[in-house]
Amino acid sequence: MKRILVLLYITLFSACASAEDKEAKVLIVTNMGKITVKLYNETPQHRDNFIKLVEEHRFDSLLFHRVIKQFMIQAGDPTSKNSAVGEKLGDGDLDYKVPAEIVFPRYFNKLGQLCAARESDGSNPARASSATQFYIVVGKHYTDNELDKFELDHNVKFTPEQRQAYKVEGGAPHLDGAYTVFGEVVKGLKIVQQINLVETDSNDRPVKDVRIKTMKILKR
């Protein structure tokens, strides 16, 4: 029986490793350093759209146009490529949306998650995602007391995985279940955190441009 269990464990581990190997990875080269993200297979429309945009070089030379400390860094506005210094950004997009693929609670807004930006519920009740704009979560750390209060105030219940992540890694739990999380940072998290600390103006745009030089598919 022990031998069977061990063999079963090895088989399951190999299957998981195989699935992990098949996840696409993208290298994001910025003027502050390199970030590598992997794209989840459970959100195929977002994965395929992101890969398509990378291959078309749609992200090249775009800015991280919105940065909010202890919250997130956001990029993907096509109009940011040639924007003037101090120009307000954030309304640019392509002429289509990506249907929501919210895989919650498996994927939630902890530190390092790659998520799709979108218009507000009022004009976008289906919570469809922007074609190009995305954000990477930084967030803040929470104590048990803060998480308990959050549960009461928002009538939610954190899973053990969520609670542990928000205490140890940090994140933005108020976004959970409302935005599509379609990947995560696997390398370069320190670069994300450094970008999150840059000086910004009244519109949350970095005073000194933080630019995506290029993106490249590392694995398909």
Commentary on this structure:
- The protein has 220 residues and is of the alpha+beta class.
- The chain contains 5 helices and 10 strands, in the order H-E-E-H-E-E-E-E-E-E-H-H-E-H-E.
- It has helices spanning 2-21, 44-55, 144-154, 160-168, 189-196; strands at residues 25-30, 33-39, 66-68, 72-75, 97-98, 113-116, 129-130, 134-137, 181-187, 212-219.
- A hairpin with a 2-residue loop joins strand 1 (25-30) and strand 2.
- It is globular.
Q: Would you tell me the overall average pLDDT?
A: 92
| Residues in helix, % | 25-40%
Radius of gyration equals 18 Å
Number of strands: 10
Strand line-up of the largest beta sheet: 3-4-8-6-9-2-1-10
Number of helices: 5
Which structural class should the secondary elements be placed in? alpha+beta
> What is the general shape?
globular
The description of the largest β-sheet is:
8 strands, antiparallel
Beta-strand content estimate = 15-25%
Low-confidence stretches: 1-19
